[in-house]
């Protein structure tokens, strides 16, 4: 029986959340566009996550668009007091499902109001500004203009905390000069470790690091090393990938995404999986880290 309390907890601004949460993006239709393939299962996944103790859900109004937020509201509203919903703004969807930047004052303001309405909230707990200088990965460039607009919306009382997504260390430093940054959400997993140094720096400053694609994203991680370690530990490869992240740094919060009740239960059970040092060393070799 899984107990996600075993994952421990970490702070997100003035909230404390369990380190094993849930990412809602996979609930939208194919390509994160349109309605889910099975509406009732999508609601059941959300309810099962919260019933199992998940108190941190990651979402955005540009998933669908509007689809995952409305599912969250339908499944879980009125929300439990301890549930922290983290959303993100800065992108919009083209009619062809493309991901486009949306950084004007009008677009950012509209995005905050869309999230409030579709989630059924008066204040958003945490809003990540998703930087789109390069949609596929962090790219240098000032984030001052859009972050100042989001900080204005925070001052108006619409947003409690602010985070950054798809950013470089330089952009995080620039952001922290403008407003408090409580979390960073970049791509990271045991095969994609560009942020190793950044994670440790953020840990020292008490800032949460929330890896997106913790399981590899649209093409889940596949590695014979990962499968071998999982077989030895009598776990699944995805559980090992999550346990590795939990042991990687104390400020890592997990938001694995799934549209499947079975996968959800498997992922939550990773909270209780402890990886011995020799297995971690072997997993580190997947990304060429710590190789002898
Ligand atoms: N800030 C950003 O730019 C950004 C970008 C992408 C995502 N995100 C956030 O990060 C969250 C996590 O990312 P993600 O969902 O894209 O990727 P992910 O968590 O790395 O992986 C999701 C994929 O893994 C599969 N999966 C999940 N659990 C599994 C299991 N136990 N066994 C086998 N397959 C499993 C899912 O398919 P099934 O549905 O079949 O389980 C799905 O294909 C998202 O929900 C979203 O909130 C943020």
Give a verbal description of the structure.
By secondary structure, this protein is an alpha/beta fold. 36% of the residues lie in helices and 16% in strands. The chain has helices at residues 39-51, 67-76, 105-119, 144-155, 169-176, 196-204, 224-233, 237-248, 261-269, 277-284; strands spanning 9-12, 15-18, 22-23, 56-58, 84-89, 91-93, 99-101, 124-130, 159-165, 181-185, 208-209. Helix 4 (144-155) links the parallel strand 8 (124-130) and strand 9. The chain is globular. Residues 23-26, 58, 88, 130, 165-166, 185, 212-218, 220, 238, 255-260, 263, 266-267 line the site of NADP nicotinamide-adenine-dinucleotide phosphate.
In short:
With 292 residues, the protein is α/β, with parallel strands linked by helices.
Descriptors for this entry?
alpha/beta; 36% helix; binds NADP nicotinamide-adenine-dinucleotide phosphate; TIM Barrel; 11 strands; two-stranded antiparallel ribbon; 292 residues; single chain
Can you say what the CATH homologous superfamily is? Answer: NADP-dependent oxidoreductase domain
Number of helices: 10
In the CATH classification, which architecture applies?
A: Alpha-Beta Barrel
Beta-strand content estimate: 15-25%
Average pLDDT for all residues: 97
The CATH C-level class name? Alpha Beta
Distance between the termini: 38 Å
Helix content: 25-40%
Order of neighbouring strands in the sheet with most strands: 3-4-5-8-9-10-11
What is the 3D shape?
globular
Fold-level CATH name: TIM Barrel
Order of helices and strands: EEEHEHEEEHEHEHEHEHHHH
Q: Spans of 5+ residues with little confidence (pLDDT < 50)? A: none
Q: Structural class, from helix and strand content? A: alpha/beta
Bound molecules: NADP nicotinamide-adenine-dinucleotide phosphate
- The tally of strands reads 11
Number of domains: 1
Q: What is the CA-based Rg, rounded?
A: 18 Å
InterPro entries: AKR, Aldo-Keto_reductase, NAD(P)_OxRdtase_dom_sf, NADP_OxRdtase_dom
Pfam family, one: Aldo_ket_red
Keywords: Oxidoreductase
GO molecular function: oxidoreductase activity
């Amino acid at each position: 029986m899984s107990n996600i309390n075993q994952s421990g907890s970490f702070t997100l601004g003035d909230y404390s959340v369990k380190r094993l949460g849930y990412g809602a993006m996979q609930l939208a239709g194919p390509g994160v566009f349109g309605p889910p393939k099975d509406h009732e299962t999508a609601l059941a996944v959300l309810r099962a996550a919260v019933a199992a103790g998940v108190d941190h859900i990651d979402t955005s109004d540009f998933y669908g668009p509007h689809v995952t937020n409305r599912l969250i509201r339908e499944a879980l509203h009125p929300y439990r007091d301890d549930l922290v919903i983290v959303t993100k703004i800065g992108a919009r969807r083209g009619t062809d499902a493309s991901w486009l930047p949306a950084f004007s004052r009008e677009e950012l303001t509209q995005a905050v109001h869309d999230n409030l309405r579709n989630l059924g909230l008066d204040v958003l707990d945490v809003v990540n500004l998703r930087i789109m200088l390069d949609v596929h990965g962090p790219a240098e460039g000032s984030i001052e203009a859009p972050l100042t607009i989001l900080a204005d919306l925070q001052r108006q009382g619409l947003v409690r905390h602010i985070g950054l997504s798809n950013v470089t260390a330089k952009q995080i430093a620039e952001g922290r000069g403008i407003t408090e940054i409580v979390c960073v959400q970049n791509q990271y997993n045991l095969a994609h470790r560009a942020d190793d140094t950044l994670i440790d720096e953020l840990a020292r400053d008490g800032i949460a690091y929330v890896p997106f694609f913790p399981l590899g994203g649209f093409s889940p991680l596949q590695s014979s090393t990962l499968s071998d370690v999982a077989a030895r530990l009598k776990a699944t490869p995805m559980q090992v990938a999550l346990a590795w992240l939990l042991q990687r740094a104390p400020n890592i919060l997990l938001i694995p995404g799934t549209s499947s009740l079975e996968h959800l239960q498997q992922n939550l059970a990773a909270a209780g999986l402890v990886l011995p040092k020799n297995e971690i060393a072997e997993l580190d070799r997947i990304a060429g880290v710590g190789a002898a």
